[in-house]
Amino acid sequence: MPIPDDHFAPVRYCDKCTSNGCTNDECTISPAGTGVPNSDFMIYVRAESTANCESGSTLAYASTCQQDQYDRPTFGTVNFCPLQISTAASAFERQVSTALHEFTHALGFSARFFPLMRDEDGNPRTPRDEQGNPPTFSVGTCPNGKEIDYYVEPADTTITYSTERGHVVAKMVTPRVRAFVQDHFNCSRLDGAEVESQDGGCLGSHWEERLFEPEYMTPVDSYRNVFSALTLAFFADSGWYRVNASMSEIMHFGRKKGCGFATKKCVNPSTQVPIAADHFCSSSDFRGCSVDAMSRSICSLSTKEQTIPEEYQYFPNDPKKGGVNMFADFCPLNVGYANGDCTISTNLLKLGDTSINAFGETYCPTCRCTATSLRSVDSTSWGISPARQSGCYAMRCVGDSTSTVVELTFPRSNSSDTVSVNCTKKEETLSVPGFTGTITCPDPLVVCEVDDPSRILLTEELVNSDSSTDTGDGSVSVGSDDYPDDSGDTSTTNSSGKSASASYSSSSNSSSSGLSTGGIATINTGTTTSGADGERLASLWIVLSAAWLVLANVE
């Protein structure tokens, strides 16, 4: 489906040009279209098998086509790879998060737009030359050592570079982004949020996978993506949007883990001990709970065919051993999986043809995972392999902001009733009548989703305050290592610098619907045309429960 003529500004056509150029008497100018009324931003959507889809791991990719006089994107395009489209109900959340990821790139979350960001007064964060352009290099070497033939460099008030953990790290250091990471990790000395180091080009177009694994703007699709205030902080700092941070989701990954979690290696190569046992792992036998307690989990540890780069080696005696995901710096992550999802009722294990509930589990929308060694007294004669180390249970939070009790309820198949116990302390172990073994109490900060103060940090009056505390290295205990990656994202800028493109990858396959049609999707209210200036500010709401975006003019 072609772009309608009404969407174009006047276009100059020349049909008798030579190598020396065209003269005006050989050219005609098409009339201007009427534009797209009551719109701030327009996305052209298609589902076509292109060269970018050939790898089989790319879910979709996006590009920005046009900007207004303040550099805010006004037109964008998204292509969904048909073989990765699924109409199955179980794939709905993944399809929606993929769409939001690509829409977010088109809205300006891309390395090409980092040098174009503006402050709250509309002034460029990166100084411009007399023609209004930021510093541009036609040839040279990037801070990360990559050779370039075209690069636009953001000012050091937007992006900084440093050497950490043996490689160059880029960080976004704008005010709200910095405030978010300081509060999120509980570390006042963090100066910004790391940008993905494994993306193509000089600068990544995603958040660092190792630190923000479930965030929806990391390069690899997670089992359960989180729409956090971090990405909204970027938009608030861009100068183009105002955000409603109350619509963000809490990101438990890395939350309050301290400076060490954010700055040190995920696994200490000297001891092979993870920086946080509930996030990273070092044994393929590990069975636990995902960081958000929504699923049982496994360790994403593998042995590669080739040697892992030295700066990402955590097992010196085995340089090919590490996490599957290179975007997470080969850190073996503690990852959830579909068959262990606590919200899916059909995941409940029954022994053979019996009704025996061996672990006293329940799978429901509000059920959560915790460590356990429970076995029902009527299941002890059964052998279960592999041995369970975690389970899903019905949980209810009782209490106030100062004291939270987590009530766990267990069905007992031997007596056809239920029994409840109360957890008052994280990692406390309790016995349960009718079961051998113990249950380990979950973290109420996770299970009860206590309100995240990071949302508040997006308000103007608190951006420059320092309310976080430096907690040092965070927790260090036996746990996990690298995070796996068998496929990845790419982000590229073309040599003309006229469009930004980014793709989204997955480590799993989806069924195909065979779609190859195109269409136009608009996000309405305002006025947008290809040649129009538009408004300097637009407002962005990400409505997560309904999974849609709304843009509106700021009066």
TrEMBL record:
The entry's Zn(2+)-binding residues are H101, H105, H206
Q: Which SUPFAM superfamilies match?
A: Metalloproteases ('zincins'), catalytic domain (SSF55486)
Which residue intervals are annotated with compositional bias (Basic and acidic residues) in the record? 119-131
Q: Which GO terms describe its cellular component?
A: cytoplasm; membrane
Q: What GO MF terms are annotated? A: metal ion binding; metalloendopeptidase activity
Give the UniProt keywords, A-Z: Hydrolase, Metal-binding, Metalloprotease, Protease, Zinc
Question: Is-annotated flag, keyword Membrane?
Answer: no
**What cofactor does this protein call for?**
Zn(2+)
A GO BP term, please? proteolysis
**Quick one: where's region Disordered?**
119-139, 460-516
The cofactor binding remark recorded in the entry reads: Binds 1 zinc ion per subunit.
User: Domain of life here?
Assistant: Eukaryota
Record's Pfam families?
A: Peptidase_M8 (PF01457)
Residues forming the catalytic site: E102
Q: Where is the composition biased (Low complexity)?
A: 465-481, 489-516
Family according to the record: Belongs to the peptidase M8 family.
What name appears for this protein in its UniProt entry? Leishmanolysin M8 metalloprotease
What organism is this sequence from?
Answer: Phytophthora sojae (strain P6497)
Q: Print the organism lineage.
A: Eukaryota, Sar, Stramenopiles, Oomycota, Peronosporomycetes
